[in-house]
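[Structure tokenization] protein backbone as discrete codes

[Encoding] learned vocabulary of local backbone shapes

[Begin record] amino acids and matching fold tokens:

___
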Amino acid sequence: MSRKIDMEHLTQLARLRLSPEEAEKLGEDLERMAVNIESLSHIPEEWLAEAPEEFGSKTETAASADARQWLRPDVPEPSLPREALLRNAPDSDGEYFVVPRTLGGQKG
């Protein structure tokens, strides 16, 4: 099954400026991705029910099962002393980091 992506509309929504060649290549890539994703809906449900027990529920993926093996427990620990952190800051006011303003570009 083939999908036709409206690249003119998509690039306008994403505010992208693409050459015609770039738009055509991106459109082909997106069409292939859409077809591949759609093909997942054709996997027989009985195949999903046969997932190995180690992966847990049907909604858990192999990646999330693997992630549990290397993630450490989330345990609160004391923060570093403020003086040690500010010592390495490019700029500080003695109590806080000083960073450029988001608007206007001035420190503040």
In short: The chain has a mean pLDDT of 79. The first helix runs from residue 7 to 14.
